[in-house]
Design a protein that fits this description.
With 207 residues, the chain is mainly alpha-helical. The protein has 2 domains: 58 residues, no CATH class; 131 residues, HAD superfamily/HAD-like (Rossmann fold, 3-Layer(aba) Sandwich), CATH 3.40.50.1000. It is built from 9 helices and 5 strands. A 3-stranded parallel sheet has the order 3-4-5, with helices on both faces. It has a two-stranded parallel sheet with strand order 1-2. Helix 5 links the parallel strand 1 and strand 2. The longest helix is centred in the first third of the chain and has 16 residues. It is globular and about 50 Å long.
């Protein structure tokens, strides 16, 4: 994002110090634009997105110790993929193309049948209903919010679940520790996703 912003507007490090975890791409960009005085009207947002996607494709192969598939993620997705009673979908603040680029890089995009993305919205809570409707359109059964599990690594992910009446699994592999996620109201907190059985037991707890 910093590289794309500099490319278009000649302003380096525009996103330094702006919180990103758990927020939508549009929210993050709006903050950077407000701070630097950049006008995002007209086709500016679209031009930024296209440049960001190009820069993302360049950056992902660069060696970085924090760019990896986190513990348990692939095994859990493979376990879910082998079942017929869990519908996996994405609810992410990433723009759809950005999410695809990131997940395809790590071979994970194939596990998600549909999703709701942060292309235009600022508040990620608005994405919950979109995600559920798209899941239904892709073959998921109609469910109540309490049958939906939101998995994330920030208090904003937990808040998204709470606002919708869904349950949450918070994973302490991101910027927030387990105690903070628990105090934020997460229904289940995991240090990572290595314990597939524990995750599945939580999913099928009757509420």
């Amino acid at each position: 994002m910093n590289r794309a912003f500099d490319d278009l507007f000649g302003i380096p490090d525009a996103f330094d110090g702006i919180p990103m975890a758990g927020r939508t791409d549009r929210w993050i960009l709006d903050d950077a634009a407000a701070r630097t005085g950049v006008d995002l009207s007209g086709d500016t947002f679209e031009r930024f997105r296209e440049r960001y996607f190009a820069r993302l494709l360049e950056a992902l192969p660069e060696p970085r110790p924090d760019t990896c598939v986190l513990p348990g993620v692939r095994d859990l997705l493979e376990a879910i993929d082998a079942r017929g009673d869990i519908f996996p979908g994405l609810l992410t603040g990433n723009c759809e193309e950005g999410a695809r680029i990131k997940l395809e890089h790590f071979g994970l995009w194939k596990f998600f049948r549909c999703g709701a993305y942060g292309d235009a919205v600022t508040d990620r809570n608005h994405l919950f209903d979109v995600a559920v409707k798209r899941a239904e359109a892709c073959g998921a059964p109609r469910v109540t919010p309490g049958d939906v599990i939101v998995v994330g690594d920030t208090v904003l992910d937990v808040a998204c679940a709470q606002a919708a009446g869904a349950r949450s699994v918070a994973v302490a592999t991101g910027p927030v520790d387990a105690a903070t996620l628990k105090s934020g109201g997460a229904d289940m907190v995991m240090h990572d996703l290595s314990d597939t059985d524990a995750f599945l037991r939580f999913v099928f707890v009757q509420t």
